[in-house]
Write a structure and sequence with these properties.
Layout: E1 8-11, E2 14-18, E3 23-29, E4 35-41, E5 46-53, E6 59-61, E7 70-71, E8 80-85, E9 94-102, E10 105-108, E11 112-117, H1 134-147, H2 153-190
Parallel strand pairs: 2-11
Antiparallel strand pairs: 1-3, 3-8, 4-5, 4-9, 5-6, 7-8, 9-10, 9-11
Helix pairs in contact: 1-2
Amino acid sequence: GLCATLLLTQTPEHIVTQTNNKTEILCELKERTGVYWYRWSQERQHFEFLVFSNTLGKATYGTNVSQDKFSVPEARSHSSYSLHISQLHPSDSGTYYCSISQSSQLLLGSGTQLRVVDALPLPPKTTQTPQSKKPVSWITKSKAASREGPCSPLVWIPLAAGVLLLLLGLVPSAHRLYRLRRRLWLRVHRQ
C-alpha cells in the first residue's frame, strides 16, 4: 500500500497566512535525489511546474516562474528539502507538492494546501482561555500515534478537528458576504 512505500514526507499539510508574508514547505526524502516542486491550480485544473532542486541545491525554474518568489535553499541534509515562497499574494493559494521521479513516473508528496488571505481568521483575543495542561498529554498521544506510521487514524483525528474548526470559523463570514451580495442584487433589480 501507499504507507509501506512512503519515499517522501511533506509537511505541513495546511498553511493559512497573510498577504506579503513568506512561508516554507518541507520535504523529507528516503533517498538521495533531486526534488521537483509543483503547484496544483484549482481554477486551471493542472499541475504547474515551479522549480527543480538538485542534490547540490541548484535550482532549475519552470517558464514564467518568479525566482524572487520561489527559492530552494541548499538541502539541510541529503534528504531534507524546502521550498520558500515569499511576497505572498492570494493568487499564490493552491496545493503545493514536492515530487521525485522514479522509473519514468512522478511520486508526489502528500501536498500542502496554502491559503493566502488579507486577514487571518483568528478568534478575538478576549475569548482566549489560559492554556490548561490538557493539550500536552494530547500532543504526546498523537506523537505515539505517528510512530505507527502516517496512516494511523489517531494522527488524522486531531488534524481533521483542526481543519473543521477552521472551516467553521469561515462559515459565518461567507454567509455574511452572501447576504450582502443578495441585498445588493435585489436593490439593483428592483429599480
